Amino acid sequence: MVEKGKGTRLMKGGIGKRATPRPRTYLTIGYDDKDWAKRHGAQWDKERKRWYVLGEVSEMLLPYIDSLMGGQSLKEVPEEERQEARARATAARAKPLLRTPPPDDAQADFFVPGVWDVAAKDNRGIMDVAVFRLSKKYPRANSVMTHNLPDGGHVRVASGPDGMASIWDYDIVLMGVSHLTEAMNRYRAGLGEKPGRSFRPHVSEILKFCRQSDGGRQYEAVEAALRRLKQTTVEIVRRQRGKDGRPLRVTEGAGLINDYKAVSHEDSGRVTSVEIELPKWLYAAVVEAEHPEVLTMHPNYFLMTPGLGRFVYRLARVAAGKGEARWSFRLIHERSGSPDAFKKSSAAIRELIKANELPEYDLAEEPGQDGPILVMRFRGSFPTPSTEKAGP
């Protein structure tokens, strides 16, 4: 249904002159689709209690027009055709990247130290390769994932019987990096002791840090994540030259965490506390390095639901920084370790571009000589929590 709009516009350069009113196109929008429809130009008519668009209708909203198929009203369109139209709209619609924060997300537990208030930090050295799986669909138990490096070396990620650690499990490692960074800030300021490799967070601290709700199943999930992190090992092979000029092959391997201990109530099975020993390589990178290479992560990183979205954000942080970077779809597919075909990975990248909800960065696609290119462009200032001290 298309009608004349009620209002008029003032023409540029002619105060008081009436312009031709833009047509008003009415839509049938369900409650679940209203926020998405508003982002594409839909407005609410309070008098008629109907959704409408002024002027040109976005292609995303075409299947919702009341005059579908040859000017018929929506009621006159057969149900089968209406379902097909809805399916086309759903296929064209970008899936949201961010989940809703838990209800108590903004309020810290009075009895728990505010470890989660420290922005997550990660080691720059491994941010452009996936040392974890990005999909919840494929557990990848007892499997190997290999990333080739430009210097001729490679990164080999191997999993155990409980599956490969996921990018969501890795949030616990991020918490360990943040713990070490904050402890070292206090130590350098003369306000505390030098941290050791072990830290003992309460499970509610872990859930708060990861912006997860505090529920029974989440407690079980933390214990399962610790098992996968313990069983997932990362081996880095690099080629270099010795002092005598002879080529050398240097191999280092370690788990994503070294050891852990979980304490739970026997009657309920709820985990109450854990002790996590971080690996030597991570401890050395944050504590023993003269200039630790750690990057602050945006708080909304933990609300991102697609694993690929999280990986692309990490890639943007290290490659683009506060500027711009370009990576080919093909290289992202390889570095992400995705078991899917390249075509499917490309479709997933385009979904990220369509949604454009990545924290801090805008995404775009441009053609390249060897295939499509993902452009990652910093869009604004990074929000610094008031509780965060300057990093090393």
TrEMBL record:
The DUF5710 domain covers 24-54
Region of interest (Disordered), residue spans: 1-21
Instruction: Read off the InterPro entries from this record.
Output: DUF5710, Replication_initiator_prot_A
Q: Which Pfam families match?
A: DUF5710 (PF18974), RPA (PF10134)
**Protein's name according to its UniProt entry:** DUF5710 domain-containing protein
Which species is this record about? Methylacidimicrobium cyclopophantes
Source lineage: Bacteria, Pseudomonadati, Verrucomicrobiota, Methylacidimicrobium
